[in-house]
Amino acid sequence: MTDRPVPISDSSTAPPAASDPGTAPASGSDDQLIFAALNQVGMARGRPLAPLSPAYVATPSDDDSRGDLRDTAPDLIPNYQLLREISRGGQGIVYKAIQKTTKRQVAVKVMREGPFAGARDRIRFEREIEILAQLNHPNIVNILDSGVVRRDSGQMHFFAMDYISGQPLDSWLADSSRSVDDILKIFITICEAVNAAHLKGIIHRDLKPGNIRVDGENEPHILDFGLAKTATGEVVDELDAQATPQMMTVTGQLLGSLPWSSPEQADGRISLIDVRTDVYSLGVILYQCLTGRFPYEVIGAIRDVMNNILHTSPARPSTVSLPGRARINNEVETIVLKCLSKERERRYQNAGELARDLRNYLDGAPIEAKRDSGWYVLRKKAVRHRALAISVAAITLAVVAGGAMSAVSWQRERAARIDAEAATLLAQQATAREAAERRRVEALFEFTKEVLASPDPDFLQGDNATGALRIADAAEARARKDFAAEPIVLADWLDNLGLTRLTFGAREDARKLLLEAFDLRTRNGASGRDLAASHTHLARALLDTDDKAGALSHADAASALLRSLPASEAQPDLFSEAECQGGVALRQLNRPAEAVARLQSAIQARRAANLPITNFDAEILASLSTALVAMGNVDAALEALRNAEPIVLALNGERNSRVMVCRANTARVLLVRGGPQDLAEAEATIRATLATNRSLLTPLNPTHPRLSLNLDILGQVLIQQGRWAEATEIGRASCRERV
Amino acid sequence: MTTPTPTPPTDAELLAKATGGDQPALVELLRRHGPTVRARIAGKISSIWQSMIEPDDVLQVTYVEAVMDIGRFQPRHEGSFLAWLTLLAENNLRDAIKELDRAKRPSPRKRVTAGPSDESYVALVELMGATLTTPSIQAAKGEIKTALDAALDRLPPDYARVIRLYDLAGKNIEEVCAEMGKSQGAVFMLRARAHDRLKQVIGTESQFFSRTS
Question: Which residue of A24, A489, A563, A694 could cross-link B35, Cys pair, CB 3.0 to 4.6 Å?
Fold first, then answer.
């Protein structure tokens, strides 16, 4: 300002009195005001770019406003004529200068003197010099010289580097004539420069628009490696371990470049910082470049900002495009969102991959990034807000299904799964509107996923099945309405609802839904994982509708797709399911040896990935036993079933259909082996199973086919034992059951 | 592993860092002294203006000014930062009250125009008191508009917005308050600071305007 503030009372210039009412700690409101002020200062039109590049904060015009050297002597550094101060940061001051020997313009960074220029600062300063010396890339600022000047007050470290005329990236972007393609082109160059550092094992850790300068020929240059680290090196790690807490404790928050920070940085997980941290920051910058906004709110209390970085999904760039600039299309959006994944594993694994995908897009080639599936997104939300989703789903169930299952007992059962994290997150839920919206989506999700897709099929008979199918109908109608414009999400819903209908035995409906989901996914570029899921589910549906060859074909396609995924995206659970469906199809096609191999592959995939034991493990073992019997290896078949029974027993309890089916199968295999002890065990097993099945199934369906199947096995055991009269009586009973 | 609790840095240490461009240090200073300034300001808003301006309005602009000017601040004694921050705040409050008072007695010269046009841009530049060396403002007004737009883009967004709405679009104070979601006092205060900043930027821009002589 040209006019200095004029005091209106003498008290304002005096130090605070002892009774001064100012000892109260800063509140959330203070944080909000401060952060808003930082953003105000850093913003250009429509671009909350901010606060955090001290070099540019107070600089209306970077080249014009700081036209002096303050109190610095022009000949402070031998062989350099300092012209003016360019920027001033926590670590040092950068001057524009003339290198006297060459007469060329350079930038000279001088380490700050004073009480804070301790040994650690010197090490950090020297590290920046070493890092810059390692990097020789046209788009990374080039170091020219370094040295130490001895003065009365001590040593002063400096280094000289290229002077990049031009403007910071954010100013460059302020020109609204830049097209999306212009931005992507320059961004590819930026990524390649960052990748050059990555290839040398150097992580920048402080990428932001203020650290990227665009010269007059639209060439970007990466600046300021003052916070960079090498991926390996004990000295550096030790420095980080010292420096980061200090940085954190100055204000209690990591504020330096918070809006561009990755989740692992915001969370203070230093050990997780790697090249993918830079990929995240690049994603934030790209998002800003394209939309003029941050991916989430970065104005407000710092704890809220950190929470947003850690948990808030970015708003879709296509919905927040800059006015006057072309709308962001799906592929660019997918690329940006992949960079911004909260999980490092789901981002591009280095800046080079990001550059390559951007080039793919510009060249009209298929991009490598795939959009997160709707289920993945919903699952993430559901994990965060599980308690809420569960309770709403329970209420929905109780109201709509009219007692297909006791909502109270169901809720109680699920309540055990509500952990402290979910409760905390629930407490942090944002506005009432957001909560309502979240409930709407999550209730539907939880409801279909948790209630319809995985109950004991025996409960889904008669009126219960009718009630539950009505819910499935409602869910389908709602999904078709809500996700009409989101074919990939709709496909996720239809896929899941198809599985639900399979569970209910509505096989033809299931097949149609699964086919529709498959078609939607194929036409809309779904991920390999989602396509493989569709193939697998279709295989299951086709087996149920007796199309064995079709089922095998889909299972083979699923397995092949899943084998082609990179190790980082492996889906062992889905792969084992595909292998299992393939194995069952092969057995039904009378190719038992191949069936056994596929089923053993399914088991091996689950073991290798150390997946938790589920009912599906038992299902694979049961299928394996059938194939082994077909091969004549009855002992191995029996062993498979004896391995399966403890699994279903532990997971489902004694009075459960899965346990009953497993025991009936065991009796059947014992019957095949046919020794006297086998037959005795088979009889005892099938009689106990029959009794339990009668108590379980008769109230639901007195003619349940499993009852007559049990009687058939018992009759055959009795015939093998030569007990004809008893067998005849059992045969009559079986007929009665069927009627 | 637990991190030992560090000794909090003193004001002098933080100030040395903050004036050197260390933003976390500045934030910490603002967090330390903001509540004191708020309390001091609250005591200076007389009852007749309390419905028009709140201490947080003053602090908001004060923090913006502090962030922009910390690099020029030269501490002289231990309480310097608090005194400086208080000074900024009181200056803001004083300007707000001055404008609120003036608004009770509307003057036709208060506004540069009744609607947005090239003329309004030229009038605003004149209002700023910028030295225009061009003898023919008429010939240069297109350039003035372009330059002023560029200058406004360099201001904090709230500053630019208040000028665009109030000075250039000619909206009345109530409309501006409604659009910006701020009190009258806050809007007047923003405008005063926005004019200060705009003068600075125009000062450097105006030398590039056309000279038709």
Answer: A24
In the structure encoding, which two tokens stand for residue B163, read together? 């000028």
Structure tokens at A171: 């100013």
- The reply to whether residue B21 touches residue A7, judged by beta carbons under 8 angstroms, is no
By C-alpha distance, the chain B residue nearest A245 is B3
The CA distance from B113 to the nearest CA of chain A, in Å, is 23
ipTM above 0.90, yes or no: no
- Residue B138 predicted with pLDDT over 80: no
Where helices occur in A117-215 by DSSP H, the ranges are 119-134, 169-173, 180-199
Partner residue opposite A41 with nearest CB, options B152, B156, B160: B156
Q: Do A304 and A353 share a domain, yes or no?
A: yes
Where in chain B are the domains? 11-103, 108-208
Chain B residues within 8 A of A54 when measuring between CB atoms:
21-23
CA torsion A682-A685-A687-A691 (nearest 10°) is: -160
Distances (CA, A) of A459 to A259, A404, A452, A463, A638: 51, 8, 11, 10, 29
Nearest-by-Cβ selection for B82 from A5, A15, A25: A15
Instruction: Give yes or no: residues A92 and A225 share one domain.
Output: no
Interface of B with A in 183-212 (CB under 8 A): 196-197, 199-201, 203-204
Question: Phi first, then psi: what are they for A531, rounded to 5°?
Answer: -65, -40
Domain membership of residue A203 as a residue range = 168-369
Instruction: For residues A116 and A90, give the distance between their C-alpha atoms in angstroms, rounded to a whole number.
Output: 10
Q: Is B46 in CB contact (< 8 Å) with chain A?
A: no
Residue A312 to residue A300: CA distance in whole angstroms: 14
- Amino acid type, B27: V
> Is residue A173 located within the same domain as residue A145?
no
Across the interface, do B83 and A61 touch by the CB < 8 Å criterion?
no
Residues of A in contact with B37 (CB under 8 A): 22
Whether pLDDT at A633 is above 50: yes
Of the partner residues A11, A33, A51, the one whose CB lies closest to the CB of residue B23: A51
Say yes or no: A249 and A197 in one domain. yes
- CB pairs < 8 Å spanning A and B: 184
The tokens describing B138, both together, are: 């008429």
Last residue of a domain, one of A316, A341, A369: A369
Q: Does B94 touch chain A (CB under 8 A)?
A: yes
Residues of B in contact with A3 (CB under 8 A): 196
Q: Tokens 């209420």 correspond to what residue?
A: A395
Which residue is closest to A46 within chain B, CA to CA?
B157
> Facing residues of A106 across strands?
A97, A162
Q: What's the CATH number where A285 sits?
A: 1.10.510.10
The answer on pLDDT for B211 being more than 50 is no
In this structure, of A24-33, A169-178, A436-445, the range with the lowest mean pLDDT score is A436-445
Q: What are phi and psi of A92, to 5 degrees?
A: -170, 180
- Kindly report the pTM of this predicted structure: 0.41
Mean of pLDDT values over A501-520 = 85
Euclidean distance between CA atoms A647 and A570, whole angstroms: 25
Domain annotation covers residue A537: no
The architecture that CATH gives domain B11-103 is Orthogonal Bundle (1.10)
Residue A26 and residue B35: Cβ atoms within 8 Å?
yes
The answer to whether residues A137 and A218 belong to one domain is no
- The domain boundary, picked from A106, A127, A162, lies at A162
With beta carbons less than 8 A apart as the criterion, state whether A521 and A478 touch: no
With 70 as the cut, is the pLDDT of residue A436 above it? no
In this structure, the answer to whether residues A290 and A328 fall within a common structural domain is yes
What is the DSSP-derived secondary structure letter of residue A13?
A: G
Contacts of A17 in chain B (CB under 8 A): none
A675 shares its domain with A738:
yes
Q: Which residue has the higher pLDDT, A386 or A124?
A: A124
- The CATH code that applies to domain B108-208 is 1.10.10.10
Tell me how many domains chain A contains.
3
Asked if residues B153 and B160 have their Cβ atoms less than 8 Å apart, the reply is: yes
Residue A309 falls inside a structural domain: yes
The residue of chain A nearest to residue B70, with distances taken between CA atoms, is: A58
